[in-house]
Each structure stands twice: as structure tokens, then as C-alpha cells.
Amino acid sequence: MLVSLMILVFAGGDLSLKGEIASESRFFDDDNWQVTQDINSGLFGRLDLSYGSGPWKTALRGYGRWDATDSDRNFASFEEAWVAYRTSKWHFRAGYQMLNWSATEAFHPADSINARNWDSRVENPEKRGEPMVSLARQMARGELTAYWMSFSTPNHMPSQASRLNFAAGQAWSGTRYLDHDGSLSKSERSNQWGLRYTVNIGDGDLALHYLDHRERQQFGVAFDTSSNSLHPLLFEVREWGLTHQHVIDAWVLKIEAAYKDYPRQDLAPGILDQTQTAFGVEYGWITGSGASATVLFEGQTLFGLNKTDRAAASLFQRDVLLGYRHAFNDIKSREVLVSLIVDLERQTELLFNAQYAQRINDVFSLTIGLRWIDAKNDIKDGQGLLPLDQADQCSLTVTRHF
What we know:
Blueprint: H1 2-9, E1 14-28, E2 39-53, E3 56-67, E4 75-86, E5 90-97, E6 116-117, E7 126-127, E8 130-138, E9 143-151, E10 176-178, E11 184-185, E12 189-201, E13 204-214, E14 220-224, E15 229-248, E16 251-261, E17 274-286, E18 292-303, H2 307-313, E19 318-327, E20 335-343, E21 350-359, E22 364-374, E23 393-401
Parallel strand pairs: 10-15
Antiparallel strand pairs: 1-2, 1-23, 2-3, 3-4, 4-5, 5-8, 6-7, 8-9, 9-12, 10-11, 12-13, 13-15, 14-15, 15-16, 16-17, 17-18, 18-19, 19-20, 20-21, 21-22, 22-23
């Protein structure tokens, strides 16, 4: 039906088509274990098509990855595939959508709808589109949007050989869902819904939301003894959240918060009601050479849980980030980003990230990355970044844009 609607919209209007094909390589520090793959090399592609005609608009965007060294990393996913109709007061959209409700660089308590690809950066993983219907109403002040989702896209889990697998050396099987009635289901069908209100207040943007859906960010583990298989386990959750950004001269202040109520936590030990809160501060200036410089400081904490439960609930349960971004604003679009995440509760748990990007010419670009994870501590509980300790990596991506 969605494809038919998209074809009908293509009766006349403005068409935009762009995309990219990239050669990706990542090199991990050797862990001297034959089960894991220390080098990944392959291709990544993304296609982005949009079309508008009067009040109608449609978009199709998706990506795919092929890995020459680990076939279990091969997969493709929609990011956007929808048809929309807009009037002066109403905005209707149906299809795969990617919602970005976060304001911060690394901590995202309010950005919980879309499924993730967990074989990517743990602080900011790739996201997958979610099939949904949304209806927005422009109000005297702000906009109110209602969402309905009848399916849930599963998270893409790291392969058995991936160095980013939290269950090191174990293969993940299909996702299981713990529903409101306490049943354990394999079905991706589920009635989920939400409301979000956004409003501009002076130099700030405020968003409030409520969700009744399947949790994507926080998941448990189910072990099937009959087949000796490991499954990611997703839970029903009722969530109230907010996001706020405010600009004061060269400063940007940010806050995100989400209260999560798990109705069947009696059947899922360790999954407890909690409040996640993150804040961020940015300060930017223009250097004498015309470059844009930005200093970032962020933090996240969880309330309503003890130290042990906090560590089980989030990778970044009480962490801070310090970062610096430098955009040279030159013909090559050179940019450097450096960040360090430090756990204030679990000693010597650090994640360092450095990235350099630039254009090679009009159609090619280059990105070089370095990541260092140090999670050595005396706790040895398998929580936090401990399973990724010494999963240090260098990455190289050469992209052809069209």
C-alpha cells in the first residue's frame, strides 16, 4: 500500500536523489581469541530519495552493509520510507520513520523509539526506521503529534565474532518480547502509541512526550535452555519525558529526562522503574582563522536505583563527557572531534573517541577514527563497558557521494 501511494504521488513535482557508497575498515587491538574477528572490511551504501508535489511529500532512505570478513554483519534497513500530506494545520505521515528526540552528543534518555544497530558506536549507535502512523496538529502555541505503531523493529545485535558483542563469543538469536499480559512472544506485532508536544519559548525549544511502547534502548537477556540459544529481551514500558534546549549568546544549554515505568518488572528481575536524566553545555566561538570551535560538556545519571541496579540499567549510568569540535570551514570541509567519557561511579572506566573528516574532492570524502576503551576495575560484574574492555579500534572510511 505504501509503495502504491508513493507511486501516485509521483504525478509531478520536485524530485531529489542522493546517496553514498563507502569502503569501511575497522581494526581492533588483537585479543588473541580465534572466535572473534579483529579486522572488519566491507562496503556501506545509503540511498536518499525525496519527492514533493503540492501538499504531498514522500521520502525513501535506507542503508545496507556488506562485510567481507564477517557475513553476520551483513544487513540492510529502512531509515525513512513514508508518504505525508500537509495542510496549514495538520500533518499526516505513514510509513517507516526515524525520530530524533535527543539534544545531546552521547547521552539520550529521551530518544527511545527507534531500534538500534548495536554493532556500532555504543554511545550513539546507528538507528533503524520504525513503521508508524503520525498525525500532527499545529496549535496556537506549539505542535501536538500523535503516534501509533503496530510493529516493532528489532535491534540489530552484534555477531558472534564481533568485538563489540556484549556477550563475547556468543551468537544472538531472534528477539523475544515480554508483553503486558506477562506472555513471552516472538511476534513483532504490538499496539504502541505516543504523544509529543513541542513549543518554542523565546530562544529555547521544549518538547514533552508520553510513550506506551516496547523499550529499545534497554533490553534484557533470555536464555532458551531447550535450544541453548541467547535472545535479546524487550519489555513494555510507559515513559514520560522531556527535552529542552536554550541558547544564551554563545552558550547552548540542554537537558533530557525520561521516567520509565515497567508494568511487568515482577517477571523481569533487574528491570526496574527509573528516571534517566542528562544535561549538556556547549560553548562555541569563531577563531582568528575563521574556524568554528565548540567545547562540549555533558553528564547523565539515573535516579530510583541503587549502584548495582544502575550499572545493569545503562552503560552510562553516572558518566560525564568532555569534548571538543573544530570545523575548519575550508574548501575541504575539514573537521576534528575529540571526546572522553568518564564513569564517575565505576573507577577507571573510560571511553575515548577521536575523529577526523574531510572532503578529498567534489565527490569523495575521508573519515579516520580512533577509539580507546579502558574498563579495568575490581568489580568484574560484566556490567558497564567491562565486556568491551580493550576493544580499542582504528577505523578508515572512504565515501563516494552522488
